[in-house]
Amino acid sequence: MRVVDRKKARPFVLGIGGGPASGKSTVARLLARRGARVVDADRIGHQILTRPRVKQSLVEVFGKHILDNSGRISRPRLAEEVFGNPDKLERLDRIVHPPLLDEIRAQVDRLKREDDVLMVVVDAALLIEWNLHSELCNAVVFVDAPVDVRRRRAVCGRQMRPEQFDKRAQAQLPQETQRQQADYLLDNTASLAQLEQEVERLWNAILTESSPTAT
């Protein structure tokens, strides 16, 4: 059961789910072009890693080798350290997730207080694992694509090694579990043009269904 009322919400809070390289951020960007305001968990995560207390805790737990040549936390080195190792991943989560979730909640709350915002999009890879789909969102859209397509995108577009992709995918809930939590599905198997059409239909459907005049 969702904590928030799904009907006639203004602004409407839409969570985006999907596996690695499914196209979640692309969907968020396309919705932003139509007027949505995006809360990007990955971008917030970048900012969290620059906080002195978080940086110090991570270095104490994982060692100075996770720093780059400028003394900043290297996300690739940190990812290499923890993905595929459940114990280390849990230790990372205990440090990073509390301030990250607090900032996500704070940004959603600020945007909901603005009069001109029609839709808030929460782009978070662990949306369901963090229970944000129930806590914050009026609905969830699942961005779907076969695993071989997503792996190819990750390798070609993000220069990610296949084993890195597999470790990231294994750190998330199974795709079918995520689909079951979704209110809308978007197929991102084909072209960007087709995805844009699906996003346009999604945008119009949500604004119509959530309109105060809708029955």
Molecular structure report:
This protein has 215 residues and is α/β, with parallel strands linked by helices. It has one domain: P-loop containing nucleotide triphosphate hydrolases (Rossmann fold). The protein is built from 10 helices and 5 strands, in the order βαβααααβαβαααβα. It has a 5-stranded parallel sheet, sandwiched between helices. α2 (41-49) crosses α5 and α3 (52-62) runs antiparallel to α5 (86-112). The chain is globular. The mean pLDDT is 89.
Total helical elements? 10
How many structural domains can be distinguished in the coordinates? 1
- Quaternary state, please? single chain
Mean pLDDT: 89
The major sheet is characterized as: 5 strands, parallel
CATH architecture grouping: 3-Layer(aba) Sandwich
Annotate the secondary structure layout.
Blueprint: E1 12-17, H1 24-33, E2 37-40, H2 41-49, H3 52-62, H4 75-82, H5 86-112, E3 119-123, H6 132-135, E4 139-144, H7 147-157, H8 162-170, H9 175-180, E5 184-187, H10 192-209
Parallel strand pairs: 1-3, 1-4, 2-3, 4-5
Helix pairs in contact: 2-5, 3-5
